[in-house]
Amino acid sequence: MESTMPVLILAIPLFTFLLLGLLGKFMQRGMAGVIGTSAMGITLVLSYITAFTYFFSGNPLFISAGGDRLQAVIFNTVWLQFTPDQIDAAGQIVKHGLAIKLGFLLDSISAMMLVVITTISFMVHLYSNGYMRDHHGVCEKGFQRFFAYLSLFSFSMLGLVVATNIFQMYIFWELVGASSYLLIGFYYTKPSAVSASKKAFIVTRFADLGFLIGILILSYYTGTFNFTELTSVPVEGLNDVYAVSAGTAEHIRSIFADSKAPLFMGASVMTWALVLIFMGGMGKSAMMPLHIWLPDAMEGPTPVSALIHAATMVVAGVYLVARLFPLFLMQTSALDIVTVVGAVTALYAAMVACAQIDIKRVLAFSTISQIAFMMVSLGVTRIAHTDALGHEVHEGLGYMASMFHLFTHAMFKALLFLGAGALIHAIGSNDYTAMHGLRKYMPVTHWTFLIGCLAIAGIIPFAGFFSKDEILTACFGHSTVWAIWMTLVAGLTAFYMFRLYFLIFWWKEHKVHGEHVPHDQPWTMTLPLIILAAISCVAGFVPFGNLVTWNGHPITGAGFFTNLDNLNWNVAVISLCVAIIGILVAMKMYRKENPLPEKMRSALPRLWDWCHHRFYWDELYMFITHKIIFDRVCKPIAWFDRHVIDGTMDSFATMTNRLSVAIKGLQSGRIQNYVWVYLLGALVLAVVTMLCVL
Amino acid sequence: MESVGSIIAYVVIALSIIIFSVLAVTTRKILRAATYLLFALFATAAIYFSLDYEFLGAVQIAVYAGGIVVLFVFSILLTSHPGDNSARLASKKRVSGLIAAIAMLLVSGYVLISRCIGVAEPAMQSIDMQKVGATLMGTGHGEYLLPFEAISVLLLACIIGGIVVARKR
Amino acid sequence: MFSNILIYFVLIPLLMLAGLGISRNVKQIRAVAVVGSTALIALSVYLLVDYLGQRAAGNEAEMLYTGSWSWFTPLNINLSVGVDGISIAMLILSSFILFTGSFASWKIDQPKEFFLWLILLSTGVYGFFISIDIFTMFMFYEVALIPMYLLIGVWGSGKKNYSAMKLTLMLMGGSAFLMLGLIGIYYHSAPAGQPLTWNLLEIAHNNAISTGWQHFLFPMTFVGFGVLGAMFPFHTWSPDGHASAPTAVSMLHAGVLMKLGGYGCFRVSMYLMPEAANDLAWIFLILTGISVVYGAFSACVQTDLKYINAYSSVSHCGLVLFAILMINTTAMTGAIMQMLSHGLMTALFFALIGMIYGRTHTRDIHEMGGMMQILPYLSVCYVIAGFASLGLPGLSGFVAEMTIFVGSFEQGMIDYLGGAGSLRLVFTIIACCSIVITAVYILRVVGKLLLGPVHDDHHRQLTDATWWERLSTATLIICVAAIGCFPNFFEQLIRFTFNPEFFRALAANVPVLN
Amino acid sequence: MEKTMLCYLIPSLIMFCCGVYGFITRKNMIAILISLELMLNSVDINFVVFNRFLFPGSMEGMFFTLFAIAIAAAETALAIAIIINVFRSVKNVDVEEVSKMKF
Amino acid sequence: MDYSQFLAMKQEIGLLIVFLLVFLYDTFMPKKALNGTSVFTCVVFAIYTALCFCCCMTDTWATTFSGMYATSPAIAAIKNILNVGALIVLIQSCKWANSDEQVVRRGEFYELLLATLFGMYLMISARHFLLFVIGLESASLPLAAMVAFNKNRYESHEASIKYLLTAVFSSAVFMMGLSFVYALAGSLYYTDIYCAISTQPSAMLVLALAFVLAGMGFKLSLVPFHLWTADVYQGAPTVVTSYLSVISKGSAAFALLVMMVQAFGLVYSQVWEWMLYALIILTITVGNLFAMRQRNMKRFLAFSSVSQAGYIMLGIIAMNATGMASLMYYILVYVFSNLAAFGVISAIENNCGKVDMDDYNGLYRTNPRLSVAMMLAMFSLAGIPPFAGFFSKFFIFTGAIQQGSTAIYVLVLIALINTIISLYYYLLVVKAMFINTENGCVIAPFKSACSERLGLWISVAGILLLGIVSCFYNSLLELCQTYGIF
């Protein structure tokens, strides 16, 4: 495969960013939107072609003779050479030095992510053309900036998923963090937005610290950053230079397998490395306890939330674990941590989502919960074994399920966010208390939103059903406890989503204030909703088992209905039932205005309070950062610096000055004193010298 | 064993040196101080004589006693009224003076005693004026033509300096 | 003598001084400054190209363009010049910062005197970087220090007298130790019976300084240069000094002068006394490791923009010395990169702070807010500088820090696994933490100063950057981005310096990995 | 009893110390000058004594004394001129008066 | 008796001729022509200085009067350095000497100055302590008269009496020391003493050396023998102060070097090395500590010169050719730097009578050239490159460290740390002139006299060139390396 197209996929958004960023203020605002959207459109097409080529062209670069999907390094250039290559006398490279390369790694998950990112991004671009205008169709201030940021984000996210090595991933990881920061703080005059953006950046930065240290440990032991070498999957590169040097894979495997690495606090250093890397993922993917930034991030414009904080960036953590999955497989204790973190987060986020008023926050917590599903799914993945019920479980089913859910979730969550955006745009508020009963006024939004809710609740045949079913199957394959846990969370998901749905669109009739009647938005905004709704309906049938697996080896066939064929109906029925129960409860409580919710709230006041206040995590963080780190660390250090260190330096001067004043009496102005000092000085000099010398 | 006469002469000389020195710096009448100085200088001259340096003794009397002390007397008469007593010393000052003097005495005394104890007076042939003159005018080793010339410049400069300073304007 | 290109790095500033001496009005003064600094940029870029050409042609000499002219012959003092990749990098840095600094002081009072001092300072800087004779090096070093006093004292603000004096005295205190160290090196520069020398390369080749003497001389020189490199606890001149200095001076000082410290530590202390460096590194590792975190924490609570930046410089420059002490090729490369990067971005910071201060007459972040609405250009530049500082990929900070961390960690692991203790490892991880703290204080400033609602309505009348300010900041941003985007170019430029001989002394006690 | 060298040196030393004491304690400048004369004189004695007792063959000590006397005379002359000068200015010769410049 | 030996003393004889010419001119020329005395003296002395440079530098070394007097290229060089300094002083003094107050004493001033210079020559060339003492007295006694030259100023009288009394006291102590030396060696010739003093030190030797150092310390203003310095510098006419601070000090330093090496060289490490250590540390530190607080410029420079003397001593303690050359070079540079400073002070004093540092506030605004000259002088004194002071300081440290003991490193470190304090107070002057402009400028703009400007130009040229142009130091060092001290 030529490298032109991949390069363009990265270059077009970057170029658009620079163009809009530097020259944006010289162009009309609307123009910027057009440029940004069309550029994204081109990228979308290119990505689709690339993905299609990868999956279906049958090119031997991408698929082996045995039908296994391969990793293909399309291009890879050295960006920063840390340690030089070792060259033997003959001029041959014996061992590659450590280097950050920028490249394009095409394999099943990156191809899939290309599709996801460009699709959602394009939708969001399109949508933003309508969203970022006021009711008279005049573009908001900063329109160009907005599109510039979107392009920057798209570029970074694309760079992240196609990274050929972990350091490239880290680079783009930081860049998506920065674009996220910029976009959350887009309304920079709003103090809440500013602090939210700051929070997001700093929390993820903290997580990235772990990521970085993890990378350092990993690369020290393996001697490479390259995914192809790290994950030991055979590669067919365009150029031999980028191919795995002989023995590297064995070397890495031996480090992991033979416990060549030393122990640290009872665990292998490699486990630590993976856990630290996962910590980076936790930050980006808002896993507990690093989740606190995501709800606040909803301060950003809603399309941004859809793109970054629902569909793409937040799944980077999942993607990261998936990327390094073969390594995780060799250190299952790390996988266990992934599982636990995921499961706890899933339940937590679902509970909190039940008690939020701001619709975007509900969606945010739902996002956290769903990503936690993906994490759990990865965490429970093991290779070929029999499950608790005695069934043979497919190799790496959880991995596939996780990716599948990532894909479907991106679609329906983007849909939900964009729908929410339409609502907010129409109502001018984020709270459902200002909405209620909108179904008549905004039919398109209503129906698409409903599809989204059904998808996330896991109702057959919408997309979420299939992916969630696979996840639960994988869980059952690993541990019944986690499986039941996750099933309950799935039920809770259905409940809170439909609570939201009913509270927005039903509950009671909408009160129209003045002439302002809520209505569906212009086509730029509804079109993406419709498209995404359509995708949510059919995405469940994409044969992921055939396309995306941990080792490239297909576990299902390629047909359109294979997903249905391969369903584990035991699990499917359970999950469906749970989901329907959740929906019914929600319907009972929220379809019409009734005192039931109020009763329940007063019945369990403590629970409501905790959920509503997100279990007081924010307060805890505020306490730690402000009261402890700021007040008890930074301020004392600054004080110490000014008063002790600087004080010492100053005191040298003061002491010299004091001394100078103290001895001024020596110069008394009296000749006789002078002579006295003179003589005694000479005598003391003599006596001291005598004592020393003689 | 020395003759009794010379010992008595020595004791007189030594005592007068000590006594007149002490008196010269302790008396409260300045004119008396000058007088005591004169006696001390005479005693010094006596030492020179007793050590067989007659020429030096003569110079001492001529220059020091004759010249310098007269100068002192003139200047005293110029600057103070006869009969003026200087005020009593502040005890602090006296103590510091004593400290310095005694320290000097102890240190130098120790040094002298440690080094020079028991050196007897060797025989020496007396120095005739011929030799003194030749040495003063000679250029060889231990001869002093150059210092002799040099000190003339010093004296000239001091004369000029004295004139300039003492001149009214 | 004049056939050597390096001499012109000193000659051009001297000509500029002469030009300033005869210029009669502001326009001529500016013309001299701009023409001269442009010429210096051109010269350094030409040098870079030619240098790379020579390297590509296979010239493997340690230093290129070497030249030596006898000066104080009986003492073996020569005017020896020569450059390698590191020096060239530093020369380019200096040229760009001088250039932008000239523009940043477009409207300064008493321009003639100001530029005279500024150019004198840069003469010292250039001389320092081209010298390979430690006497001349030291001389130029001190030439560069003293103009600071007047620049801050006359053109500064706030408690300028105190700061100027403190800065000068502390730096001179450092150079007192340095002078002793250098003279000591001279007297041990050659084996008995051979002529002594001040020449860096010869001293290194002679390798005659006994370990015992190294243990004495290394701390002297390292502390001496370290004071200028803002090493804890000798950094306290930096906050006050920077806070009081006028814009261009802060730029030049933080941007270039503080690099003299790092460069000197590297070139003199480490290069000439590797054994002692190896033995005593732990002391300074602790100090610099503290610098890194401590500076960052201190920056978190400051409210004066310049103080924030000064403390951040303490942190970043601490990282430079920290990396140098790792005695690891990668980390040292990173240190040089960090010098470049910090020089540029800190100059950018100070330029921007100066420009903002010139408009608002305050530097207290509590008295400002919402500048993004009023001064969008400057604010955007500030954000970019901030991103560079907190290590955003694509800007220079990231590559430098990552190189350092990778190298330090590698050395830390080598030490740890080789039984040489875990100090390097632990401090590397501590230093890594600074990336978080840096983010905290940078974003705090950005949030308080630039974003949010306008704090003071009087500020609404302010006007955005003028053309010379735009030129100055844009140049710096382009440089920062250039390093950030194409790091390998600089990395390779620098790396050639670290020839194996440099590490000769360390080979014995470093276990080879795998 | 024999007259050893010390017999001469000690009185000379005492003379010197008296000079020191006088210099430090006297208020009248001329008295101070007198003290100085004592000190110089004591030095002269020292030279002569050393010459006589230790190196009787040479005359260096003696000649040093000879020149020292001349120097002392010059010093005294100049000193008296200056003291008179000061007297004209401040109308007395009290050494305590001339301590305006200090610290 | 070979009187032709006098001919070996070319410089002394030349100087005496100048002295006589001035004397004769001043005594016998008609009243009208007396206005030209200053010019006449300067010209004659300049010619003499030039001749010395032409003729005397090439001489090989000579010892005359059976070793009582010695000259060598190095000695000729240091005398030439002193000549240059004296010439600058003469030039700078023109304005002052021709003022109404001084005009009656003008001729005497020059005569005394030349006489003292002659005394210094003797100190340097003497290889016999009698000759040395005569030189010492000629160099200090007439100075007391010069100090008293400002008859209308009380300070001048106070200074002269302080100077004279302490000078005589110190010469008494010095001669006391000499008497001990004589007792030990039996001779006053340096060479004899060198041979006669055993390397096993005795208490008497220690005391003798202490007294000798005290006597020389008085001339050099080493702490604790320096106490007269500030008062005398402050009280004396500025011209005389500058003469005292550079020429007198420089000659004494070199003479001390010669004496210590030639007479007491063998007991260097046993006895006087440690004494000098103590004196140097005390001198530098105390001088600096006092200088910090001074507001009167002359007093300030007095203490600065005290601490500078400490640095000069490093050249002696080095006991090698580098140290000696550095010492000479240091003196050379110090001459130019200090004379530049005093030139500015005297120009200002002559014009408006201000000598306080506070009066210098904002001087740059009103008299930029003077303040630049002052700044250069301060920087040079503080040892800031590229001015000459840096080189001299660096070389003197280099020379000292060549000695090689650990103690010397400590000593140099202490000296170096003291440079920080000294930098502080030198910068105070710079600060006053350039930075303190808030309260207006005290000194109105004025045009200084030609002679003052000429003197300043020469000094500034020296400050700028002596360091960068390496031939001065190189030739000095080569001289010392080739010929040694003797």
Q: Secondary structure elements and their pairing?
A:
The complex is a heteropentamer of chains A (694), B (169), C (514), D (103) and E (486).
Chain A: H1 4-23, H2 29-56, E1 72-81, E2 86-87, E3 93-95, E4 99-106, H3 108-131, H4 143-161, H5 166-184, H6 191-222, H7 227-230, H8 248-257, E5 263-264, E6 267-268, H9 269-284, H10 293-296, H11 302-311, H12 316-323, H13 325-330, H14 332-353, H15 359-379, E7 385-386, E8 392-393, H16 397-427, H17 443-457, H18 463-478, H19 480-505, H20 523-538, H21 544-547, H22 562-565, H23 569-590, H24 596-603, H25 605-612, H26 617-662, H27 671-693
Antiparallel strand pairs in A: 1-4, 2-3, 5-6, 7-8
Helix pairs in contact in A: 1-2, 1-4, 2-3, 2-4, 3-4, 3-11, 3-16, 3-20, 4-5, 5-6, 6-9, 9-12, 9-14, 11-15, 11-16, 14-15, 14-19, 15-16, 15-18, 15-19, 16-17, 16-18, 16-20, 17-19, 17-20, 18-19, 18-23, 19-23
Chain D: H1 5-25, H2 29-54, H3 60-90
Helix pairs in contact in D: 1-2, 2-3
Chain E: H1 10-28, H2 37-55, E1 62-64, E2 69-71, H3 73-97, H4 106-125, H5 129-147, H6 154-185, H7 190-196, H8 203-220, H9 228-235, H10 238-262, H11 268-293, H12 297-318, H13 321-352, H14 363-366, H15 368-382, H16 388-402, H17 406-435, H18 450-468, H19 471-483
Antiparallel strand pairs in E: 1-2
The helical percent of chain D reads over 70%
Distance between the termini of chain E: 24 Å
Known CATH architecture of chain D: Orthogonal Bundle
Number of self-contained structural domains of chain E: 1
The parts of chain D where pLDDT drops under 50 for at least 5 residues are none
Which structural class fits the helix and strand makeup of chain D? mainly alpha
User: Which pair has the most extensive contact?
Assistant: B-D, 86 and 72 residues
Number of strands of chain D: 0
What does the average pLDDT of chain E come to? 91
Mean pLDDT of chain D: 91
| Bulk shape of chain E | globular
Taking Cα atoms only, what radius of gyration of chain E do you get, to the nearest Å?
21 Å
Question: How large is the share of residues in beta strands of chain D?
Answer: under 5%
Terminal CA distance of chain D: 54 Å
Radius of gyration of chain D: 17 Å
CATH class placement of chain D: Mainly Alpha
CATH topology of chain D: Helix Hairpins
* Number of helical elements of chain D: 3
